[in-house]
């Protein structure tokens, strides 16, 4: 659906003040004038050389990555590769990073990432790590925010569609992953129409507070519904986790109709302290499964994969009090907990109201046993016993809610394409603003935490249509920055995003900008193929495997002339950037390589593997314009026919050549 708008006055930056854009609206909306007014440009203008106030981490959706923007400018600062190979910096191509993408399904070069989640201390983003989920082959990644790099990826077994993920508990003890699609557990060959009998869901709690040690603490076996989103309790509700579920009809075909029958589906309220007790008391059953845990060793900057073989599964039947269901209208999508921890807000996609549950009432309802029935050992509480209130006539298609810390909530309305601001406690709508178009998530920096920085809101829209210069059938998706510092929301800025911006999180730049690693200390590089000085470079042969140790520094490689390689050999270039200075990168590429280039951060070693196809002399060069003599940064490798008598040679220093001669004599 295209909603026609007319831009009747252009954008004028006069002393960065007066901007007049008037939208005349035909169609179902009431006329909205002056959507962008007054000082909007001044509010988003970050002068050249000045820094933005916030870092925003946006999901790349089906790009599988994370993109980092500055707010309020909307400037793209970086793309962090996570679940997809990224040829620009060899992520998932070079030998050091490839193990990060290993799974029980083999090496996977792509996924669909949805929800960036910042680590928290006492319920407030602390700037240590960012987590993000893989939706297709369920995994969770950890990104270190001193380097903006993916350091760790854990696979989630017994799961299919890791959508409700990776929301964190207030001190990052756990991040979670709930299965979107129920499947047979263990997954075996059964008829699809045995869904109701043999399909199950799982909720996974993954320990996350120690880098390199993520593991699945336990899983909870759930009825065969679809699980959609989740959020941890906080304050009084600390120790609880809330997940939405839909398809309580347990349809396995034509869900659009068949899973939209019931007036209410459920929010699962999980008492994870109770789950910990059940695990401690041996009520969780170990189950044989396989999943990968991949992490980057900090010294060698090389990823390692380990396969794990067991997980603890809690069946609520054997662990009373671990899960309760809160009936919730209708096919709920988002579930969000307000900063006080008292209110649990659901976004019922098909609901006409926004239902809000009360944690206090939830506790009382459990004590009073105000149950309607039990599903697979899970008590279903009475709606009236848990609901705190309903926001009436909020708009159409409520999805997600965030908070400003000043008593207001902001809900995205997919169908009516707007953000609705309403008051916690009175449930009255106080303001609304249109979005362009079909908003999914929205984000306020810290807006799901105990202490939101309630100055800006970012709307993330699914459809862009006429907002930018057209680029053929596919348009970039779009984010919009909205000022929420006053009573009325004000649109400030549109900016295009990479992939689909499902969700984003943001925090004040001051929390991380001064903690950035500027280079890796060469002295601490433990990569087995590190070359710390020119004299250490060289070439070795083991059967048909050739290893070349090489340094890169402004503006040469050493060695830069290599001979003695034969057709049929596999050549590993292990290149170390021995620079010890911020932002001085070198690259490495060789003619005919069937993989990406290498990009080398200062102080690190990376490996490009090359199988030459035929005899000849092949140039290699630096791909990053590093100095005035960057164009001189090149070399040659000679490839001879198999069985040739050309001697192995690399023109490194005299010392290195002497060592090589010694080694060859000994053979
Ligand atoms: S989702 S548009 Cu994948 Cu978080 Cu709600
Ligand atoms: Cu090194 Cu260009």
Describe this protein's structure.
The strands form eleven sheets. Strands 9, 10, 11, 12, 13, 14, 15, 16, 17, 21 and 22 form an eleven-stranded mixed beta sheet that branches. Strand 2 (21-25) and strand 3 (32-36) form a beta hairpin. Helix content is 7%, strand content 44%. The protein has 667 residues and is mainly beta. The N and C termini lie far apart (75 Å). (dicuprio-$l^{3}-sulfanyl)-sulfanyl-copper binds at residues 114-115, 163, 229, 333, 399-400, 440-441, 502-503. Residues 552, 586, 622, 624-626, 630, 633 line the site of dinuclear copper ion.
Low-confidence stretches: 1-34
Largest sheet: 11 strands, mixed
Residue share in helix:
under 10%
Assembly type: single chain
Please write out the topology.
Elements: E1 5-7, E2 21-25, E3 32-36, H1 40-44, E4 54-59, E5 66-71, E6 75-80, E7 102-103, E8 106-107, E9 117-121, E10 124-134, E11 139-144, E12 149-155, E13 162-164, E14 174-179, E15 183-184, H2 195-198, E16 199-207, E17 215-222, E18 226-232, E19 240-246, H3 255-258, E20 264-271, H4 272-280, E21 285-297, E22 302-314, E23 323-329, E24 332-337, E25 343-348, E26 354-358, H5 359-367, E27 371-375, E28 378-381, H6 383-386, E29 387-391, E30 398-403, E31 408-413, E32 418-423, E33 429-434, E34 439-443, E35 456-461, E36 477-483, E37 490-497, E38 504-508, E39 538-542, E40 545-553, E41 556-558, E42 561-566, E43 570-577, E44 586-590, E45 598-600, E46 605-610, E47 616-621, E48 634-640, E49 649-650, H7 654-666
Parallel strand pairs: 17-22, 40-43, 42-48
Antiparallel strand pairs: 1-2, 2-3, 4-5, 4-38, 5-6, 7-8, 9-10, 10-11, 11-12, 12-21, 13-14, 14-16, 15-16, 16-17, 18-19, 19-20, 20-23, 21-22, 24-25, 25-26, 26-29, 27-28, 30-31, 31-32, 32-33, 34-35, 35-36, 36-37, 39-40, 40-41, 42-49, 43-46, 44-45, 44-47, 47-48
Residues 552, 586, 622, 624-626, 630, 633 line the site of dinuclear copper ion.
């Amino acid at each position: 659906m295209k909603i026609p708008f007319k831009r009747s006055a252009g954008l004028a930056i006069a002393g960065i003040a007066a901007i007049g854009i008037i939208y005349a609206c035909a169609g179902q909306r009431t006329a909205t004038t002056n959507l962008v007014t007054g000082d909007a440009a001044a509010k988003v203008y970050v002068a050249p050389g000045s820094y933005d106030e916030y870092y925003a981490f946006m999901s790349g959706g089906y790009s599988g990555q994370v993109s980092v923007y500055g707010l309020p400018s909307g400037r793209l600062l970086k793309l962090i590769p996570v679940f997809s190979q990224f040829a620009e910096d060899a992520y998932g191509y070079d030998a050091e990073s490839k193990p990060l993408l290993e799974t029980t399904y083999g090496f996977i070069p792509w996924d669909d990432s949805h929800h960036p989640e910042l680590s928290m201390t006492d319920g407030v983003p602390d700037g240590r790590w960012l987590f993000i989920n893989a939706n297709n082959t369920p995994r969770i990644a950890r990104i270190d925010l001193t380097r903006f790099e993916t350091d760790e990826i854990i696979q989630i077994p017994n799961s299919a569609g890791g959508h409700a993920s990776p929301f964190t508990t207030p001190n990052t003890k756990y991040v979670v992953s709930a299965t979107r699609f129920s499947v047979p557990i263990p997954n075996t060959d059964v008829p699809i129409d045995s869904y109701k009998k043999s399909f199950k869901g799982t909720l996974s709690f993954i320990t996350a507070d120690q880098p390199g040690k993520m593991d699945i603490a336990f899983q909870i076996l759930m009825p065969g519904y679809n699980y959609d989103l989740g959020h941890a309790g906080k304050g009084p509700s600390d120790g609880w986790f809330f997940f939405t579920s839909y398809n309580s009809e347990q349809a396995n075909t034509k869900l659009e109709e068949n899973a939209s029958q019931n007036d209410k589906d459920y929010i699962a309220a999980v008492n994870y302290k109770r789950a910990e007790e059940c695990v401690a008391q041996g009520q969780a059953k170990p189950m044989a499964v396989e999943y990968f845990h991949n992490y980057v060793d900090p010294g060698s900057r090389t990823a390692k994969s380990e396969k794990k073989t067991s997980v603890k599964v809690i069946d609520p039947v054997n662990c009373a009090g671990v899960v309760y269901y809160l009936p919730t209208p209708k096919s709920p999508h988002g579930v969000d907990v307000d900063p006080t921890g008292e209110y649990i807000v659901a976004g019922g996609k098909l609901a006409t109201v926004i239902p809000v549950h009360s944690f206090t009432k939830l506790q009382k309802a459990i004590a009073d046993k105000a149950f309607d029935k039990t599903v697979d050992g899970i008590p279903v509480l009475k709606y009236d016993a848990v609901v705190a209130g309903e926001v009436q006539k909020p708009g159409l298609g409520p999805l997600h809610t965030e908070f400003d810390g000043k008593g207001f909530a902001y809900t995205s309305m997919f169908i009516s394409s707007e953000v609705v601001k309403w008051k916690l406690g009175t449930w009255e709508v106080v303001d609304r603003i249109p979005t362009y178009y079909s908003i999914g998530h929205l984000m306020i920096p810290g807006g799901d935490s105990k202490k939101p920085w309630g100055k800006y809101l970012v709307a993330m829209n699914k459809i862009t249509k006429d907002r930018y210069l057209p680029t053929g059938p596919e348009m970039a998706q779009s984010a919009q920055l909205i000022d929420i510092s006053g009573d009325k929301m004000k649109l400030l800025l549109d900016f295009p995003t990479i992939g689909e911006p499902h969700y984003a999180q943001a925090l004040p730049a001051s929390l991380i900008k001064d903690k950035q690693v500027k280079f890796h200390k060469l002295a601490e590089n433990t990569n087995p193929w590190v070359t710390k000085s020119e004299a250490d470079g060289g070439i070795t042969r083991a059967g048909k495997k050739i290893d070349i140790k090489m340094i890169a520094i402004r503006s040469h490689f050493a060695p830069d002339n290599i001979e003695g390689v034969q057709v049929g050999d596999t050549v590993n270039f292990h290149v170390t950037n021995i620079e010890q200075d911020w932002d001085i990168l070198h690259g490495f590429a060789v003619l005919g390589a069937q993989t990406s280039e290498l990009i080398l951060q200062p102080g690190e070693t990376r490996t490009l593997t090359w199988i030459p196809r035929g005899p000849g002399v092949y140039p290699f060069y630096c791909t990053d314009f590093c100095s005035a003599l960057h164009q001189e940064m090149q070399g040659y490798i000679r490839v001879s026919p198999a069985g040739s008598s050309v001697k192995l040679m690399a023109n490194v220093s005299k010392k290195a050549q002497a060592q090589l001669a010694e080694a060859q004599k000994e053979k």
